[in-house]
Structure formats: C-alpha cells, structure tokens
Amino acid sequence: MRCFSRLSLTPLLLALIWVQPIGAQDSEQPLGAQDSEKINSSLGTAVAVPVDPTSGLATLGWGFTAGVGYNFNRYHSLIGEFMWSKFYSTSKAAISDPTTASIGGTSDVYGVTGNYRFELRGKTF
Fold first, then answer.
1. Which of 42, 53, 87, 93 is 20 to 30 A away from residue 103, measured at CA?
2. Could you tell me what percentage of the chain is helix, strand and coil, using 3-state DSSP and rounding each to the nearest 5?
C-alpha cells in the first residue's frame, strides 16, 4: 500500500514542479499594456454529469474542451470552441441478447460553438 501511494503521488508532484515556473498570469506591465494581444486560447478537461431523463441511461462522463479566438480590442472578441465528452451506459441501457451476456456501450457527444465575448478589464475585476 505504501509503494502504491508513493507511485501515485510522483506524477502529481512532477506536474506541479513543471507548472509552477510558468507564471502565466504574472505580469510586470501596466494595466493597458496587454491590449496588443490578439489571440486568446483555452484548453481544459470536463466532467460531464447527465441529467434526467439521460441519467437513467448514462453514468458520469469525462472529456475535454479546446478553444481559440481573436481579440479585436480590449473589449470585443470572437471565440470558437470544441467540446468532446464520453458517457458510459448503465445496466438499464445495456444491449442484451437472450443467448449472450449483456454488453455495455459508450456514447460520444461533440459540440462546436462560436461565441462573442464582451469583456471589461479593470482594476476591480
């Protein structure tokens, strides 16, 4: 048990050591100096929770999101995003054949969106 704990914590500690020096939000520039950045991006993981009536057929899912956009100025931007989630079926949704055992399944959900963003950058927010 002790070896398992050490092995499971090692990748987490290495990831934290690698991420720590990046300092993506640190800035020595004054407030208005970052207006020249024209490209914005995002990347993340998702935990998807199905709601009724889908929750009777699918369990907790996972996935990722990625987006990229263009900043016209400090207030206006357009962003395109892609989302993918994978859900696993419950025993109620399992495909079964009388001659064989039941077979579970998965479902992939894809989403592509285009968004307009109005952003107020200031000392308060």
1. 53
2. 25, 40, 35
46 in a domain, yes or no?
yes
Number of domains in the chain: 1
The DSSP letter of residue 20 is T
0.85 surpassed by pTM? no
Given a contact cutoff of 8 angstroms between Cβ atoms, the answer to whether 39 and 69 are in contact is: yes
Q: What mean pLDDT is predicted for residues 66-87?
A: 92
Give the long-range contacts of residues 121-125, CB within 8 A, separation 24 or more: 121/31, 121/74, 121/75, 122/31, 123/31
The owner of tokens 């949704």 is 93
